[in-house]
Protein 1
Amino acid sequence: MANETSVTTTYDGHVAIVRFTRPPYNFADLAMIEAIGAAFDEADADRDVRAILLASEGRTFCAGADLVNANPVAKDLAPGARNPFYVAAAKLFGVKTPVVAAVQGAAVGAGLGLSLVADFRVAGPDAKFVANFVALGFHPGFGISAVLERVIGRQRALLMALTARRIRAEQAFEWGLADALADDPFEVALALAHEIAAGAPLAVASTRATMRGDLAALVEAQTDHELAEQAWLQKTADFAEGVRAVAERRVGSFRGE
């Protein structure tokens, strides 16, 4: 059924396979992000799980949030309150088990952010990574403004953020946004997850915690800033035009208002 969210977990040895689907575009909403978070919590609590494979069903990894019909950050909040969507998003970055993502098709906006939760990304030949926010008259969210540069460097992250350029699989691999290319990204991602799971689990966890550092806290703080910027930008004529343009599949005509 269209727009019905489903997140399931299956197991392949020491690897937990977390699959999400919300047809037809796997739009990210609060229910989906919270369900993925619950699956991550379950994996973290299971001593037999040593790696997580994050994957989605369909042709699109995740097309981001549906800003046209169900914008998860549109609601005005009381002073000091945190947006539940970003609370759930920030929680994902605190997962303690190593994560490998299999990315097919588009990882756009919040979908890009979801792919950045993973330690590694395996991209299919049709994969594309897009920070499309300025094309909507919007500010990046999901912690992307903090995490993306940690993966590909400041200049490349700035280029993606300010141009909304589509970074296709081969360029993503060259930049380090994808760690491997594969005709079947799921199978290659599963093999990488098993390779991680073959290591001594306490040593893997300790090393990852050291190298991941304060990422979860950084995302939590950054999503608060991102939300504040998004709040005022959503009231602009440019944002309204950007959303219309996306719905009508055209380039926006912006006036700086």
Protein 2
Amino acid sequence: MTTGLILALLAVLLAFGMPLFFALGIASAAYFWAVGIDLALLAQRMTASVDSFLILAIPFFYLAGELMNACRLTERIVDMSKALVGHIHGGLGQVNILASMIFSGMSGSATADTTALGSVLIPAMKKEGYPAPFSAAVTVASAMVGPIIPPSVALVIYGALANVSIGRLLLAGIIPGLVIILSQMVFTYFYARAKGFPRYPRADFPTVVRATKRGAAAILFPVIIVGGILSGVFTPTEAAAVAVAYALFLSAFVYRNVSAGEIWRVFQSVSLGSVRILVIIAVASAFSWIMVREQVPQVIATGLGTVSDSSIVVLFIIIGMLLVVGLFMVASSAEIVLTPILVPVILAFGIDPVHFGVLMVFSLIIGGGTPPVGVLLFIAQDIAEISFGQMVRAMLPFYIPLFAAVALLALFPQLTLFLPNLVFG
């Protein structure tokens, strides 16, 4: 009874537009008061959840990505992608997709990907004759790989909340990221061919070499992170700090195109963004303790067990639920709230938590490209200067490769687990 009232209170607060931190905090405090637990324990739960060496990776990865963005590598990435895939049917659409994969290795954020690449590629695609809605849609769809390919703040958050190896999670995102990108490139190939969209002549070898050299810094960014973790040189948190040092080195000594004032503004922005994430993690950890105390995961597991005892069926049911949640909640907020609740459920059915983490992040991020809350849709719509209705209609075909990728990753866990098992056993 108490649990139902607390969940109802949380739903009401969120429905009235209260920020997630305050909604979770009020609901948690109400529970502690109702059952007679000292509120000091609530504060202890909150502080303990963020007093972690692993959590340091979150602000470091944020900072590294923002510093790389400040280096204005976007145009170099676009030029390199154009030389590599611009000749394939779809032309700039294919460039957009490949550039998103490379850019995700710097930012780890779908929002940053949509904003940075969209501001360059959407106007360029419109100028070369591509319909504005298609240009916006391919940008949104390709940006969804951002939180999957390392470095991924979303996977770090999941690992911290689920008590799963961050190194395994970062490795687990590589092949799924390629699956997502390839599914979109194949779809765009046939779609663009049917529509007669333009493409570039094949670039000669010297052009490819020059373009690759100019964009090499972006490629090296995830290589340093993953390579360092694989070789055992540093932990994921230390890798994030090394990534910041690399980004600062590029800014100060290689490109020299970032002023001290810009770097200071990046530090300010990242500090505020990190605090927002950390305070939500803190209060969500207290809320998840309540859910565990009230045996909510066990109730969910029992309910799912009455539907089917097949782990695949249960996994698809949970994915469906996550896709629905993504329609109404920002992915990062939904991940923080649901991870502690769902991980005990999937463990009860023998589902690997690393495999589930990648699926959970991707399923929720698809919500960023779906109405009514889809933040990515609003960003791309604004850049493309189209109506929201045009944006949504243009996205409909792109859900085909996105859902196909989700299904492939769910049905074939080894796509996710091959690299982590190969390296860590």
Protein 3
Amino acid sequence: MATKHEQILTFIESLKVGNKISVRQIAKELNVSEGTAYRAIKEAENKGLVSTIERVGTIRIERKQKENFENLTFAEIVSIVDGQVLGGREGLYKTLNKFVIGAMKLDAMMRYTEKDSLLIVGNRTEAHQLALQEGAAVLITGGFDTDEASKQLADKKKLPIISTSYDTFTVAAMINRAIYDQLIKKEIVLVGDIYTKIEDTYYLSEKDTVEKWYEYEELTTHSRYPVVDDRNKVVGIVTAKDVIGESSEKRIDKLMTRNPLTVMKETSLAYAAHMMVWEGIEIMPVIDNHHYLEGLISRQDVLKALQHIQRQPQVGETIDDIISNYFDHSDSDIGISAYEAEVTPQMTNQLGTLSYGVFVSFVIESASRMIRQQKKGDLVVENITVYFIKPIQLETTISFLPKIIEVGRKSAKVDVEVFHDKKIVGKAMLIAQLIDR
């Protein structure tokens, strides 16, 4: 039987997009405490089912699909620009397709303004009304208000009209930044993108016997299975090592390993890979917030997906992408591979010197490139030690000289020295697991 918390989430999911909800309303309708209602609404917000906006309240919104992840809702725009909703609150859940900056004559402005777009404009009441009639929302900059007719039209059309104290340029930059961040998030692969769902998964009940394990092994050739209780919550994991030599009548709960490591669909693939490599785990159960089994991921699937990611172009550039783009291969004086990079403004700290985090990223990139060049595979870094780093100024060209200290079938130890004008300015060592390409 579903808990009260789960019942509330199911109720919220069943609501029509655009519906307004409150803690008091949920508590009254479902006969639960306000505390339980509040916690469920917060979880619904984390899942992208609802959005809470100051002076408006909490509304049911459409959950974004990954392919549509970069599109922002008008509710998100309100939060980004610290805006005030003047009208059209019922349309806050809608998604904008593009935004138009209204810094031109009215007729030219309207040529670019279309349905589901957002017109960013100052104190131009006529433009507000024309945009709403075209099916576009309006964002008024400079802290200006609009007339009553525009507010009534916004309510009628269910299109938000928002006011912000920021100027047009700042607002456009803020929205661009938010879209850019969403693009980067879109490219991050999560466990939920690759896991095997529960309906395609073999798992055991704690009341099952060793005989059932052997049946599954013959059917699937796998040797590890998650174990669930009578409510389908993950309580353990059982492997070949646990059942060897045991009676076929013995119950699984007497043999299984309790409290296994688990992941959620929202866990990043890189983190899951690190856990599986570090702990030597072949499979991990995928669970929800209440520990119910949702599926499985295998180590092989995770590593295959990571290799696939490395061959894909990134849409939104992260710091690591920028670092990778600034790296050039060069030959060192002592005949080993070296890599050069110039320190750019976005790589510096508040003192104008190379930041520690970027230095570490450069070290990892140089080691990765050398390992790939020698066809040893790709790196999953386990440990990195920076022995020292001298201040490295802006617009300085630095050279990274990675050397393999020790390499095995599954791991490598790499020493990296960093030079500027033939003087050593940094030194680090990293230990990493190797992934076959």
Protein 4
Amino acid sequence: MSFIAGLFASVFERSHRKAIKDEVEGHTTADLCLKLLGSQGEVSGSTLARLILDRYGAMDAAEKLAFFEFMTHGLEIDAQAVTETLKTYKDAPSKQSYRAFASACEPRRQELTRRLNQVPGGTGQLVAMRKDLLGLLRDHPLLEPLDVDLQHLFASWFNRGFLVLRPINWSSPAQILEKIIAYEAVHAIDSWDDLRRRVQPADRRCFGFFHPAMQDEPLIFVEVALTKGTPNSVQNLLANGRNAISADDADTAVFYSISNCQAGLAGISFGNSLIKQVAADLSRDLPGLKTFVTLSPIPGLNKWLAATDTVIPQDADQTAVAAHYLLEAKRPDGTPLDPVARFHLGNGAMVHAVHAGADVSPNGMKQSNGAMVNYLYDLSQISKNHEQFVSEKTVVASADVRALSATIMSEA
């Protein structure tokens, strides 16, 4: 009987979906959105959501812009209702008056986004939709409120509690490995053999965060080298034909590449949690590891040198110049000018060492004349360093790096 009941339910559901599709044939996408917002049934709601997402996927650039304008201006908050419900809540605070105020404050586009997310694959399509939106904001700043709402929702949907940390190795599904090659943003992977060198040897690791609704799409991943001592060259770290060591012989874990994979999740921070989780897991599994560092690029160095009013001696040591930039070049808010420095220092790391000639690739030379930096993640000091950075904008650095920076000040 249960089989027959299920069969009838399936036939009814398909018939109901077809009836809905026939009913809305010829309606605009905006009409479908309004109908979805008024829908109460599960089948009708999911059918409308699927139709809207399918239509969006087939839109050209002009049509997408019109759709975003509808979401921004056609599904906006009612400012008068917000004012009135706030006054009511202020005059007579209660669960009911607060609910009315909270409801008035939420634009209808947030509820539309939630309802679009109810269909299989909807989460990934909405992330791709925000990627399209971000590409329009410079020329269409009036769409920014829509982006605020999408980022607000994504911050909840993609918080750490929903993310799954998964190792990525040579046995991982090919579709995942292909995406690691495509998404690598720091040190390009130029072949399958290059990828194999990064994920197969005993002294190499790769980890990524995944979301249950996007199981085949890494959100962010980190590549790790297990070494003896702190490395000072990424070319040596990635060299073809190098001699691998046993993981048990390593005393240092080096985070040498961190890549965000989803442009539509810009502004949603995963790297902080990823590095700390990976460090904790490696420390548990390999007790011989005593040091956790990065080998990081300094992407803003040469741009700063070209634009700064700071007097830099022409014969200054390149490593000292890089150290001075990391410690002293600041944004108006007092945080480091370099984006990678802001990321790691905000996570609680410290500027540990600076190396000349560490990345002699064309990109490394273009960014920083080949200089790279180790940020040290001292697990016992991360929280303290983070608090100092957030509250006082303190750049925690080793004595050696401070001494290098000081030579620039004394020579200028």
